[in-house]
Write a structure and sequence with these properties.
By secondary structure, the chain is of the alpha+beta class. It has eight helices and four strands; from the N terminus they run αααβαβαββααα. About 45% of the residues lie in helices and about 15% in strands. Strand 3 and strand 4 form a beta hairpin.
Length: about 160
């Protein structure tokens, strides 16, 4: 985020493709609406919250109309409400999503397939619930089972269903 307004940041990519300004405006409007931040289009990026900055960055990518979204630790440093908003937003996208994260609860909510990497090698690859229920594998890779899958003594240890 380096332009004077969120609108100009989101428009940066399409403008560099030398698209007509009408097409740029259409893409920016669509991307801002898609991530739910049209109301902040005229704000300075440095005055946004962490969640708003993350949403604006995603809108910037979406304005380029990619086939694949690649994200590195998208939920890091977000408060719980912003994190949930991000997860809900990402669940709406039909794009292929490649996400690197240690936030395995987010992975559980978003991903049908999970690949676990250990020391630069694939340690496991398969359906997310299967991978994330393998406590031995996760422990060997320095990870922990997501809280959502650990069960709760108050609610009889029921595991919630994968929503994505």
């Amino acid at each position: 985020m380096f332009m004077t307004t969120v609108y100009d940041d989101v428009a940066f990519g399409p403008r560099n493709y030398k698209l007509a300004e009408e097409e740029v405006e259409k893409r920016v409007q669509q991307a801002l609406e898609m991530v739910g931040i049209l109301h902040i289009k005229d704000r300075a990026p440095f005055k946004l919250s962490g969640g708003e900055k993350r949403a604006a960055a995603i809108a910037s990518v979406l304005s380029m109309q990619p086939d694949i979204l690649v994200m590195d630790e998208p939920s890091s440093a977000l408060d719980p409400k912003s994190r949930r908003r991000l997860i809900n937003l990402l669940n709406k996208f039909e794009h292929t999503k490649i996400i690197t994260s240690h936030d395995l609860d987010m992975v559980y909510d978003l991903c049908a397939r999970t690949i676990v990497i250990k020391n630069g090698e694939i340690a496991a690859d398969g359906p997310t619930p299967e991978i994330l229920m393998n406590a031995g594998l996760l422990d060997a890779c320095g990870l922990e089972m997501p809280l959502a899958m650990q069960g709760c003594p108050v609610c009889d240890g029921k595991i919630r269903k994968l929503t994505g």
